[in-house]
Amino acid sequence: MKLLVTGGAGYIGGIVTRMLVDAGHEVVVLDDLSTGHTEALAPEATFVNARVHDAAQVLTPAAGFDGVLHFAAFIAAGESMTRPELYWENNTVGSLALIDAARAAGVRRFVFSSTAAVYGNPTELPIPESAVKAPTNTYGATKLAVDMALTSEAIGHDLGAVSLRYFNVAGAYLRDGVQLGERHDPETHLIPIALQVAAGRREKLQIFGDDYPTADGTCVRDYIHIEDLARAHLLALEAARPGEHRIYNLGNGNGFSNRAVAEVVREVTGRPVPVEIAPRREGDPAELVASSDRARTELGWTPAKPTLHDMVGDAWAFYRSQILEKA
Ligand SMILES: O=c1ccn([C@@H]2O[C@H](COP(=O)(O)OP(=O)(O)O[C@H]3O[C@H](CO)[C@H](O)[C@H](O)[C@H]3O)[C@@H](O)[C@H]2O)c(=O)[nH]1
């Protein structure tokens, strides 16, 4: 297929692009490099430096695109509470412009990066796709709005849409001499920050809140390896059917508290990770654990690296070779 990948210079979009190219697809990457890195771009893909808002410049009827995979977004849940306008403008307004462009260009398949954050504090665990959607942060709300727009688009204009609701993505892609991993600036995600502490680049890990209604009082998340997550995108692309909006949770169904994550980082790195309890971060749900039964049944998706040790091990290998050794 000829595919447009937005956010292909990011952690997840960059890795999915490699896998799409390896599978024989022709890929054009659209990314404004606002948070992405040129090193993450797959050399086989054509790169266009533009915002998703301007996708119509590339996504023309004459260009003959079969599908769009839409990763480009702002993703820091904490920041989305202090700068919500950025998130609505980039994540929602930008996505609506992209959907318009896709419609005008006759694109039949659309795979969207949705999130566990759409559920807010879940009323049932593990969380099925049918659970109540009540986001507690703006990030989740901006993504839920796009999910709803895709449902309308599938019904109204026969789009084949798939939303993949990521739980917490971790690990790195370490294959064929290519090393791609998580690198945000500034870093806000738990595992990369804990690795910076283990590496001595940061004094301590601040854990945001220990008074949540969980076993040890810290928030609980369900981690998924980037390779398993990426593979689900290729399956989703094949599964897209005109007039249907399919939605799949992607996680392993195992909850790890923030304290437990710090412990796994200590075990894997063999280094101390001093922890300090800090105030809660605005907008954080207490516990997010996925039921991914639908993805397993309908997509035939099976995670190959379900353990947090594997994820942290790969993230640590990436961090040491790509960040510490090149610094
Ligand atoms: O220095 C830190 C960083 C994070 N956390 C805590 O660690 C947990 C995980 O936080 P992350 O920022 O790593 O990720 P989120 O759980 O906020 O994940 C959200 O954002 C992700 C993308 O960034 C995914 O989309 C995911 O589905 C969505 O829920 C949260 O309890 C957070 O408060 C800390 O205690 N200290």
From TrEMBL:
Metabolic or biological pathway: Carbohydrate metabolism; galactose metabolism
Entries under InterPro entries matching the protein: Epimerase_deHydtase (IPR001509), NAD(P)-bd_dom_sf (IPR036291), UDP_G4E (IPR005886)
Cofactor dependence: NAD(+)
Keyword Isomerase recorded: yes
Keywords: Carbohydrate metabolism, Isomerase, NAD
EC assignment: 5.1.3.2
CDD domains for this protein: UDP_G4E_1_SDR_e
Catalytic activity: UDP-alpha-D-glucose = UDP-alpha-D-galactose
Name of the top EC class for this enzyme: isomerase
Subunit structure, interactors included: Homodimer.
Name of this protein: UDP-glucose 4-epimerase
Lineage, uppermost ranks: Bacteria, Bacillati, Actinomycetota, Actinomycetes, Micromonosporales
Underlying gene: galE
